[in-house]
UniProtKB/TrEMBL annotation:
Source taxon at top rank: Bacteria
Gene Ontology molecular function: carbon-nitrogen ligase activity, with glutamine as amido-N-donor
Pfam families registered for this protein in UniProt: YqeY
Protein name: GatB YqeY domain-containing protein
Length: 147
């Protein structure tokens, strides 16, 4: 379990440096992974680990959006730091141009012609970008291309 090992190492480093923010975030990530492992009843695969970390990242981004909307900058700043830590354990995210290219390729591959083919395109595309692109961005781009 490489990710848990990395988390343990980063936790030790944060403890030695007395970095409470990093330590707190790393502990939350470790707990989430361990809870999922207990729930699954076996060691997590890389894909399962990425799914847990993606969920944690998504939760933090949603919280940050709500805090920004409410004007709570005092809560947004620590969340930005947490997001950076979570992202460091995930594969590099695709930018919008790369996702657009994949959307175009998938539309050609599936032969999609309009809105009715949205589900078919998403079903084919999401496994390709899993953990590498935000689902909301993919959804938006596919809808725009199928208009």
């Amino acid at each position: 379990m490489a990710v848990l090992d990395q988390l343990n190492e980063q936790m030790k480093t944060a403890m030695k440096a007395k970095d409470k923010a990093t330590l707190s975030t790393v502990r939350m990530l470790k707990a989430a992974l361990q809870n999922k492992q207990i729930e699954a009843g076996h060691d997590l695969t890389d894909a399962e680990e990425q799914a847990v970390l993606s969920t944690e990242l998504k939760q933090r981004k949603e919280s940050m959006a709500e805090f920004e909307k409410a004007g709570r900058e005092d809560l947004v700043t620590p969340l930005k730091a947490e997001i950076k830590i979570v992202e460091s354990y995930l594969p590099a995210q695709l930018d919008e141009a790369q996702v657009t290219k994949l959307v175009d390729e998938t539309i050609k591959e599936t032969g999609a012609t309009g809105k009715a083919d949205f589900g078919k395109v998403m079903k084919t595309l999401m496994p390709k970008v899993k953990g590498q692109a935000d689902g909301a961005l993919v959804n938006k781009l596919v809808k725009a291309k199928l208009q």
